[in-house]
Amino acid sequence: MIIRKLFKAEVAHRVAMAYTARCQGVHGHSYKFEVFLTGETQDQAQMLMDFKLLKDKFNNFMDSFDHSLLVWEQDPALVEMAPKLNNRFMILPYNPTAEQMSRHIFQEAEAMGLPIKKVICHETETGYAEFDGSDPIRIDLTKVVFSKQILAEYK
């Protein structure tokens, strides 16, 4: 059985060393994140997981992205500017591409014990990245820094 939950977020970032100059400047996207869970067991209601339960378990983390500025820790100018630009920001151990964001979300779900199958990160209507855990590259989740505002809004 596979179930899917869609999360949405308005996110600002810049992509260092991107092919296009436009992506190298600070800009934003209306992201859609599809989170797929899989499993053979069912709960007492004969569901893999109630969608509301999935939202309750995962929404705090997913909400961290909404109206936030994502900053690569190797972008010192933006690391310094982030708190001045937005009180919602995340300092990340990766360049905030759709590929790495899908990997990050997958690993976070995995760390929470969710039966994660894959994550699709839609950056635009025509482009997305999909991660299913099949490659060995890992993000060190302990290096992700959430701003005080994001942490204050956790429920």
From TrEMBL:
The active site is at C23, H67, E123. It catalyses: 7,8-dihydroneopterin 3'-triphosphate + H2O = 6-carboxy-5,6,7,8-tetrahydropterin + triphosphate + acetaldehyde + 2 H(+). Binds 1 zinc ion per subunit. GO terms for molecular function: 6-carboxytetrahydropterin synthase activity; metal ion binding. It is an enzyme of class 4 (lyase). Zn(2+) binds at H13, H27, H29. The keyword RNA-binding does not apply. Its cofactor is Zn(2+). The keyword Chloroplast does not apply. Its EC number is 4.1.2.50. It holds the Pfam family PTPS. Pathway: Purine metabolism; 7-cyano-7-deazaguanine biosynthesis. Keywords: Lyase, Metal-binding, Zinc. Belongs to the PTPS family. QueD subfamily. This is 6-carboxy-5,6,7,8-tetrahydropterin synthase.
